Amino acid sequence: xxxxSDAPPPSSTPNEAAAASxxxxxxxxxxxxxxxxxxxxxxxxxxxxxxxxxRALQEAQRAAKAGxxxxxxxxxxxGGGKAGGGKAGGxxxxxxxxxxxxxxxTASGVSGGDATVVKRGHSKSITEEEKKDATPDADDxxxxxxxxxxxxxxxxxxxxxxxxxxxxxxxxxxxxxxxxQQSSHFHxxxxxxGHLYLTHSLLGGNARCRAxxxxxxxxxxxxxxxxxxRDFRHDIDHALLKPAFQYWTTQCRPHSVSMGNAFSFLKLxxxxxxxxxxxxxxxEILLESMEAYVTERIExxxxxxxxxxxxxxxDRGDVLLIFGKSEVINRLLxxxxxxxxxxxxxxxxxxxxxxxxRDTLSxxxxxxxxxxxxxxxxxxxxxxREVTKVFLGASALMSNGSVLSRVGTACVALLANSNHxxxxxxxxxxxxCNRVQLESITGNELGDxxxxxxxxxxxxxxxxxxxxxxxxxxxxxxxxxxALAGWKDxxxxxxxxxxxxxxxxxxxxxxxxxxxxLPPTSVxxxxxxxxxxSASTVDSxx
Amino acid sequence: MIxxxxxxxxxxxxxxxxxxxxxxxxxKQLALLNNFEISLRLGRFSTRGCDGTDSGSSAQQQQQQASxxxxxxxxxxxxxxxxxxxxxxxxxxxxxxxxxxxxxLTLLRGLGNELHAAGGYREPAIGNMVRRIMYAVRDEADRAxxxxxxxxxxxxxxxxxxxxxLTEQLASTNLRATRALSLSxxxxxxxxxITMKHSRQPSGSVDYSDRMLALTDSSDSTGAGGxxxxxxxxxxxxxSASTHYYACYPPHYxxxxxxxxxxxxxxxxxxMSELEDLHKNINEQAVQHIHAGEIILTYxxxxxxxxxxxxxxxxKRKFQVIVCEGSPHFGGHAMAxxxxxxxxxxxxxxxxxTFAIMARVNKVLLPAHAVLANGGLIAPSGCNMxxxxxxxNSVPVVTVAGMFKLCxxxxxxxxxxxxxxxxxxxxxxxxxxxxxxxxxxxFVNPVHDYIPPQLIDLYVTNIxxxxxxxxxxxxxxxxxxxxxxxxx
Lengths: 542, 488
Description:
heterodimer, A: 12 strands, disordered N terminus, B: 2 domains, 21 helices, eIF2B_beta_subunit (chain B)
């Protein structure tokens, strides 16, 4: 329930807390009933709530309802929605802004009004984001006004990047603060992983998905359903999986398709458990199926892709071009070089903002593969000259055959296509998404705009990116060297950093999956064949 | 006083002799040339020139230059270099003692070679300027051709000479009038079909035997008339190699004309004023190409594009500009800052996001390093990708360029045409190369891209807008086909 979600989080004002505790005496039945909507807005706390607490919340909520204005946010979320602008609403704004690394916490009644926007069901995460967009806009006009203007209108439908500006440290501390306050409800593994997502320390569809499943396994091991629960499946879903997933998605970084698919798999696995099962047995089953998912859909799939694609690498004379970093591509190149002892050259193309190609470069060089490293600008120079094949990774495959991948991939595929060089996309089938997308603008993710301004990034590897930004010396240096150092103070100037782009299926010669090499037109077929169940559920995650 | 004609005829017969010739007779002009070459080699024009000659945001520019002195930014000072080149040529041509059109052309060719060697190969505009002045010289010489009936025109009296000139003018106008009706004159605005490419080969072919005869005649007679043989021998050491250069020019070029200097200087002045009005003329067309509410994508830094956009903005057109940052040199950052300063709604994106954003772009404006004879474009590296993405999305690609960037050459070398591979210091930090693993890696950092003509929809130049397929025709108006070959 709304107030439930609002009250416990960290920034609750003293009097609110007092109010909550004061009214700690009420029916459990109602708490049970209202448990469901509570999760709509802010994930966690449900699991660790004891009866007394829940009652307290319930009470507070009811009081709010009766008051009609007091804690209006709660009402708003229930659907009644009057712009009461009480404490709860204010609080909500506070949490939001502090969690998203923003500055001010001045709250007002606007958030209460916003709450009316909330919809139920599938669109949870979306509404979450909408609100997040709306709230700071209204609330902190003066402090954030400048930055809000910096949003490129073409992309205003996308969630704002969470790690804005150099306030990374600030964000980290606020994150930690929020977690310490929530610690009674939140397993520490959740914000830890969230932080990795947020800072881009953990990149790549596979890595993110694997980490997510591992964290879930960790959570499951330490979780016991509350004694009152009638159905542990429901509890796991709503108390464990959803809050964590929503926290990562909304507070840290939008989830990848791989994560979404894995998550819906997990939900399905939970739903398919026998209700009569003992919790421990059920847990074992769940853990096992999660492990199987990782091994089968990620590890074995990678191996199979490596085998399939390996047949296309010619010994001696092949010059392969790759872009950025992709686990599956690196793996197949290493396999071809080390296991099959093939000799070939690799051109690593890299591009800002992530410069992930640096990692690829060192991985491949260490394996003794002769490499050429260029930035995207040298692509047309090299492409026509010597490249024989292009291997690309993918973040997701759309069911119309287009490939969603790290920004820049489409440029590489485009140039390869125009030079009639075959493009092979390596992608595990679990990354297939049943959505269709036509261009890169509708579905994308915004990166940190400050990275555009920082030209230093061109020469600093991704690993020490944050270090460079945080140290004072780095800060000063940036101001000196970069033409765009003061971009936020300059009117009319906006910076845009996109994380993904969509490669149309025309550019792709073949998609290498664990079931073979397919033309991109067959992705929809594959989706149907491989995972009929996910076809119906993935969509509910979006 | 040394009789100029004879000496020049002896010495200015081979472009390779130009330096020696200047050294002997015009040390002052040689010093000018040397100064220019040193500045060119050291890239001094970028720091000194811009604040003086560029009327744009000089303060900002200065600041950027101060900050980015270590960064690689060539092409930035192009207009300055171009203007300086013309100024240099003007001062050399204006004050040295050449006699005939042929000598002047040889002098220019020699200067062209010099400048090319001094760094002009990086800056095609320098060669273009030399070629254009050569064309102007040819034009002037052709305007009143003196029949090569006698090689002793130098000895005729002023009156007789003038008479001859007049009659020839009449004859030439008649000739031109008749020629205007023929097909060849439609295709070739000027008598360029009389090309003698292979005449530069050491062995004179049969076709040209009569001309060769006439030329040996002329050299004989001038040599006899001049007299001071000692200087000739010492300076024109390789006379055997030089003789075939005579064959480059029609016979009447070897006639002395007193009005030539005046008219050539006027032609150079015209070129200068064209350069000065360059941006004005280009920017006048801005409103024709940019409509309200447009989203225009441009790549990296270009003064011409910047002024073009600003001119459109000054006409109260509201549009949005997306600037690709142009990694690894990040020219786009300076560009965006300048555009935003002029009140244009500007967004900077990573180069990688070009394709992603192209779906919403209305027009692509590309900067030009050089425009090639086939209508292709040499632009900052990365532009080919932008042009391709635009083509893919059917977005028109417009290139804004002054005509001085028009190069009479074809991209036979593909992406290597007029290209340069520079230090990869901007691609990778050298400190990382200490790692033995990375020391084997090859880093490539080209400066330019060749963009084929089919990817470009329009060239907006100071003389109007043209489609790429028309460019070859413009070449005939700017350069003589004998001057096309590159300077060595």
